[in-house]
Amino acid sequence: MVRTELTAWLLMIGSAILGAMTTVLFTGCQPSVALAVAPDVATQVSSPASSQSSPEVTEFVLPEVIMTEGKEWPQWGGTRVRNNVPNVKNLPESWNIGKFDRRTGDWDGSKAENIRWFAELGSQTYGNPVVAGGRVFVGTNNGGGYLKRYPNQTDLGCLLAFDQSNGDFLWQHSSEKLITGRVHDWPLQGICCAPLVEGERLWFVTSRGEVRCLDTEGFYDGEDDGAVQGEVARVGDLMDGADGDAFEESLASLNKGELSDALRKILTDAGSEAGSDVKVATVTENKVWNATGTFGGVERTLSIKQIGPRISIFKSLGVHDKQDADVIWVFNMMDELGVSQHNMCACSVTSYGDLLFVNTSNGLDESHINLPAPDAPSFICMDKNTGEVLWTDGSPGSNILHGQWSSPSIEVLGGVPQVMFCGGDGILYSFKASRGQDGKPELLWQFDCNPKTSKWVLGGEGTRNNLIATPVAYEGRVYIAVGQDPEHGEGEGHLWCIDPTKRGDVSPQLAVKMEDKSRTPIKHKRTQAVEPELGEAAVDNPNSAVLWHYSLADQNDDGEIDFEEEMHRSCGTVAIKDDVLYIADFSGLLHCLDANGTPDGQAVVHFTYDMFAQSWGSPLISDGKVYIGDEDGDVCVFEFGPENNEPIEEINMGSSVYSTPVAADETIFISTKDKLFAIGLPK
To answer: Any idea where the Pyrrolo-quinoline quinone repeat domain is (predicted)?
Structure first.
């Protein structure tokens, strides 16, 4: 159950600075969880058990940076600031995963080094691990086949929970694929986001376009918590024509009040073997039946339905279903908001007090031209306790280039709590992180991350890009890189450092029409903001928020720009420590820069390193080292610092590393394409 008592504890700020002790109240959280909300802000959080929300979120900005103990990493990027720089010590700089038999999957660990444990994931994994409350959570597909009722041939989106100490499987949330297919729910991609965990509650976005809140303890606490009680789940199906006359025989048996041998076998295979006491009652002849009795040793009533060419068996999940997730509430963005996500939903949500922020992933259809839901919101704010939508925003409108797969970040900047959203039009938007007014947010600023003359070309051949990375706040500045769907290949990229204290349109340039010596502003256009042949021009914006920009840098001063001297498209998010910034691009280059740039807006590049394989993920900086993975399955380990331009180790993980390494409790957690590894020095 969620703890609702108020836990008061003291933070010693230092008598030399304050001359006193500062008391900060946290509700429903252990101290380490509460402090992980942000590195320099302590937040007063209302109890997740409460259905009441305060009208405004209260922030107590402390004069010193509060660092977590490094025990947990409870969301993508660790905190709502999204800077993957945990305060974790005693991490290894080398390891060996041993050998896996490609045919049987058997592990030979005789030469393994610094591997605490590993767990099987699905066949394709893009989700990043999250570590909180003694558990590790990761999104994947159903290739692991952990639930008997869903064998690994069944395509699902899965959120898996493992025991942090030993990697034992605990429970799984299962999202069946949408019948609309790959336009909304791409085959085998699974859950591509990382969840948010606070105390005993977890929030994530499913592949079906739902925002869900779960109990991190699952049903192990012996309770079915929340508003969703007895969630209906599929046990199995019998297909017409799949097994001779079994389908017709089963219909006849059900109408007689009996279970056929074929249906009993389905139940047995799903771990719900039917006892001898089962009674079948017809609800609608040839359509719906109830079967009451003992199934898998549990007394329950199953619902059996003929749906087209199949007979499907369903059960209501409860405290006996330990390996299934306990759902608190569900909000379906497709049904409730008319959202039409492109291929998948991939937002890793974050929170600010009681507020939950979600990118809806609204996008194009399979033609990559039409926008089915131009009026659907792209960004929403919810009450994290109840699932109520507080405000929506559709700023990208009909200018969405492809999909919207980024995740929001939050920081108090210029004294104002700002939530930053990467629009599908290539524009970074900042809103006040509040409950809004009349269902609408307060827009603070917007920044076009593409040059105005850049052009979107179907298939990725153009120079105009999406925003797939997550914005990062560091020392009062915001950092964001541009990129595209990895299937679109490599291309021109940009990395921006932005001043978030300005307001309005703070883009580097403005789009204008040159008419009679005047410059008439023009509305933003989807594929190309400025077309010179139409008498349009890009002019410098006097209100620009650019602090510095990186696209090209002649590092060797030979007058030519080499491949290694370019910033390419990136799916990755920056990581910054002590003013040293690292980011990987999709061409496989790790770039190391000065986070401050120069006073005249130039980027300062320390080095680039070619990993010779595409990189989808982001760096981890911790314990004086930098870790970054690539599509070949290699993890490069660098000693932290601008002078360390060669890796000290390059370790192969056995399969592609699409995700980002994370660290907590003296352990590195890496999800490869098909496995989750916990890596640490011997204790």
So the answer is: 538-639
Residue 635 shares a structural domain with residue 496: yes
pLDDT tens sequence across 157-202: 999 999 999 999 999 999 999 999 999 999 999 999 999 999 999 9
Claim to verify: residue 169 and residue 124 sit in the same structural domain: yes
DSSP for 415-471 reads TEEEEEEE-TTSEEEEEESS--BTTB--EEEEEE-S-TT----TTTTSS--B--S--
Q: Distance between CA 619 and CA 81 in Å, rounded? A: 15
CA neighbours within 13 Å on the CB side: how many for 120? 13
Domain count, the chain: 2
Q: What is the CA radius of gyration of the chain?
A: 26
Q: Indicate the helix (H) or strand (E) that contains 503.
A: none
DSSP conformation letters of 238-302: EETTSSTTHHHHHHHHHHTT---HHHHHHHHHTT--B-TT-EEEEEETTTEEEEEEEETTEEEEE
Over range 468-474, report the average pLDDT: 97
3-state helix, strand, coil in the chain (%, to 5): 5, 40, 55
- Give the β-pairing of 443-448 and 504-505: parallel
Based on the fold, state whether residues 334 and 304 are members of the same structural domain: no
CATH of the domain at 589: 2.130.10.10
Clarify whether residues 308 and 336 are in a common domain.
Answer: no
| Residues of the domain holding 417 | 99-229+327-679
pTM value surpassing 0.85: yes
Environment class of 245 (CB within 10 Å of its CB; exposed 0-12, middle 13-18, buried 19+)? exposed
- For residues 4-18, average pLDDT: 31
Residues 190 and 305 in one domain: no
Is 451 found in the same domain as 431? yes
- Are 178 and 251 members of one domain? no
